[in-house]
Predict the 3D structure of the following.
Amino acid sequence: MQTNATNVDEFIAECKEKLKDNSECGNTHYNLGVAYLSKGDFFEAESCFREAVENSPTMVEAYVQLGGIAMHQGDLEGCLNYNKLAIQVRPMFATPHGNVGFVLLQMGEVDKAARALEKAVKIDPNFVQALATLGSAYLMEGDPERAIEVCKRALEIEPMFGPAWNNLALAHLEKGETAKAVEYVDKAIETGFDVPKGLLDEIAQYR
């Protein structure tokens, strides 16, 4: 969308003006929702994204945004459902598969989560967050070797991605390779990642 706005509030006003002439433009509703989201106004953003999908039912990005808002509100089921809707509309869009995997992992459905995340990284091999989350799923499945493999792939793409270093530390700890676990915890800390206290306490004895 072309814009002359110099800040978010001007952009919001511009979108509202456009909607006066074309209230059924899903794209403008979506852009308005993103603008409200950037201001932290989740209520208005949700309303805009709902208008977007009502007027443009194939706008998968709006479903994903609605899922993100549901997650922010602690509604895992809602987040899951919105991302499943996005997958129905565009099956080869990696983001909702990754989100479904993340939510299922939070819900304790590890096997289903791993399969959704595998689908996400098959569609987009550079999906760093999905690769690292898949590492978490493999760890929960008791497969540190596969966890190491996917986390290393994530770090080849984004060397400063803290969650992948954290998962590498956990995987090597599980294998009894404590020196590597210490090294990777330190790498995670260097990225600014908030390493869980339990892991820091466990690693301390191997320093």
The chain has a mean pLDDT of 94. DSSP finds twelve helices and no strands in the chain. The first helix runs from residue 8 to 21.
